[in-house]
Amino acid sequence: MNAPYDGDRGQGAGGAGPSGGPPMPPGPGQVPPTPDPYLQDAYDRDPYLAQDLSVQDPVGEALYDRAAHPPPPPGTYQQPQPLYQQPAAAQYPPDPRVWAQAPAPEPDGPSRHLPYGDTPATTQFVGVDDLVSQASRDDEQPDAFAHLFRDQEGPTGSAPVPAEPEPAPAPAPPKSGGRASGILKSSALMAAGTLVSRLTGFVRTLVMTAALGAALLGDSFTIAYTLPTMIYILTVGGGLNSVFVPQLVRSMKDDEDGGEAYANRLLTLVMVALGVIVALAVLASPWLIHMMSPTIANDAAANSVAVTFARYCLPTIFFMGVHVVMGQILNARGKFGAMMWTPVLNNIVMIFTFGMFIWVYGTSAESQMGVQTIPPEGVRLLGIGTLLGLVVQALAMVPYLREAGFRFRPRFDWKGHGLGKTVKLAKWTVLFVLANQAGVIVVTQLATSAGKLSGKDGTGFLAYSNAQLIWGMPQAIITVSVMAALLPRISRAAHDDDPGAVRDDISQGLRNSAVAIVPVAFSFLALGLPMCTLLYASAGTEAARSMGFILMAFGLGLIPYSVQYVVLRGFYAYEDTRTPFYNTVIVAAVNAAASALCYVVLPARWAVVGMAASYGLAYAVGVGIAWRRLRNRLGGDLDGSHVIRTYARLCLAAIPAAVLGGGVSFALLLGLGEGAFGSLTALICGGAVLLGVFFMAAKRMRIEEINGMVGMVRGRLGR
Q1: Taking the alpha carbons of 639, 645, 650, 651 in that order, is the dihedral positive or negative?
Q2: Range with the lowest mean pLDDT among 29-38, 248-257, 300-309?
Q3: Which of 10, 48, 154, 453 has the fewest Cβ atoms surrounding its Cβ within 10 A?
Q4: pTM for this one?
Q5: Which parts of 375-498 fold into alpha helices (H)?
Q6: Distance between start and end Cα atoms, the chain
Q7: What are phi and psi of 359, to 5 degrees?
C-alpha cells in the first residue's frame, strides 16, 4: 500500500524479484533492465516506516500477542464507521444576515502577500489568503511520490528536505495614508491657496467696483483688464493648462535627465512666443477694444480710456504665461502649492493700487467719476499697478523652482525633442479656447449694450463679471484643486493603458467635488441676493441687487460646469484635444444663441440675467455629449450609476434646504432692509438653515461621500 503496486513484474525474465521487496540484481549475461522512473525511488524512503514501530522491529512484531493486547469486553465493541459519509444536517438553516469573519489585516509595508506594496487598508477585505498567495510555490521533491505523504511525515521521520531560508524582512517604510491621503493633502494645500487667492480676489473686485463704479467706466476697465487673459488663453494658455502637463510628466518618466531639458526648451519657446504676441497686441489694442465691445468703441471718451488701460494691461500676457509654465513644471514634480499661492501677491498689489486711487480721488459714489472725468494720472496709476501685480506674481515662482532643483537655462534647440508633437496637440486646444472665447466675445458685446440701453447701474458687463467671479469660486477652490492633484495620476494611467484606473480617478473626482459643489450651487440660488447686496453695497443698492439676480441665475449652472471640467480632463490624459474642441464648439454655440435670444426677448434690465442662466444651460448640453464620448473611450464604463446616484441624492437633500434657507433670507431682507446689517443677518441665518437642513437630509439618506467627509473631519479633530 505504501509503494506503488508492481503486479507480476517479478514473474518474467528480467523482472524484479518478489513483489514485496526491492528488485533483484541481474544474473551473468543478462542485460540490466531499464530503470522504471516510477519505481526507482519507491523503496528508498518509505514515510510510513517512521510511524509504524512494528514494521521497524520484527522481534517486537513476533512478540505481539493477544495477552499483551486483550480484546475489548463483550458489548463495548464500537462498530467501525464508514470513512466517508455526509455530515449531519444542521438543525437550523444558516442566517443570511451573518457574514463570515473578515480576515485579519495585512501588516504595514510590502510583504509576500502584497507584492506591489499596496496599503493593507485597501486589501484586507478583498479575500487574499495563503492558498492563493502560495499557489505558485513549487518546492523541489525528493521523488515522484513524496508529495503524497507530505502531510503524514513527522519529526521522527527521515531527514526532511531543507527549506529555503526566508529572506530577511525588508525595513518597514514610513507609515503614510497611502495614495488617497497624498491626494487629499495636495488638494488641501491647493484648496487653501486657491481659497486665499479667491478671497483676496474678492477684495480686489470690491475695491475696483468701489473705485470705478458699475457703470460705463467700470465696464471700460473690465474689458481692458480681461483682454490680456483672453488673448493669452487663445494663443498659448489652453495648451499650457491642459496639454503640457501630460507631456511634462511623460518627459520626467522617460527622459534620462528627468525632463529638465524638455522643461527648459518649453519655457524658452513660450517666452519667445509671448514676447511676439505682446508686441502685436499692444499695436492692435484699438482694434481689439472694438472687437470686444462696439458700444464702448463708438463712445469717444470710453474708447480712449479703454485703449489706454489696455496698453498698460496687455504686457501682463508675458508674465501670465511664464507663471503658468513655471507652475506646471512644479506640478509635474509634485509641488502643487506655489501655483495656487502666488496669485495672492498679485491681488495684494492691485488692492493697494486701487486703495491708493480711492484715497486720492474717493469712491465712485463720492466722486461720481466717469469716462469723461477720470484724470490721466488716475488711469496711469491703475495701469501701472495692474502690470506690477503680474510681474510680482511671476517672479515669486523662481524660489520655488530652485527649491525643486530646477534651474532655467535658455535652450533654442526646439526641433526633434518632442515639442512638435506638443504643438500639434495644442493646436486643437487653441481651437478649443477659440470657440469658447468666441462665445465670451458675443456675451461681452451683448452685456455692454444691454447695460447702456437699460440706463441702470449693475446691468452691464461689470455686473456679469462680478457675479461670475463669485459663482466660479467654489469650482476653482474644490474641483480645480482636486483635479490638479489627480491629473498627473490620470495621465500616468492613460500612458500605461489602464482605462479602469482612469475611470476610477474621474469618478472619484466627480463624487468628491459634488459633496461641496451641489449645496453651494443651491446656496447661490437661495442666497444670491443678500450675498451681493452685502459685498457690493459700495456700488449702490440698485447695482448690488442687480448683481444678486445675476448670481441667482448663474447658481445651478455650477453643477454641469464642474462636471464638464472633470470629464474633459479624461480626454486630455489621453492626449485627445480634438474631442474637447468639438464639445466646446457646441457649448459656445448654445451659449451665444441663448444669450442672443435673451437679449432680443427680455427687457434690457433683465437681459444679462438671462445670459447668466444661458451659461449653465450650455454646459448642461455639453456635459451630456462629453460624458457619452468619454464613456465610449473607456470601454463603455464610466461608473455612471454610482456618480449619478451621488448627484441625485445630493440634489434631493439640497432642494428642501434651499427652499427653507431662501425663505428665511427673503423674510429677513424684507424686515431689516437691504443695508449691510440686514444683508449680513439674512445671509448668516439663511445659510445656517440651509446647511443644517442639507446636512440632516444627507445624513438620513446615508450619502456615503458626506459620511466619509464627516469622518475625515472628525479624525482630523481627534474626535
Answers
A1: positive
A2: 29-38
A3: 154
A4: 0.62
A5: 376-395, 398-403, 419-454, 461-474, 480-495
A6: 67
A7: -65, -35
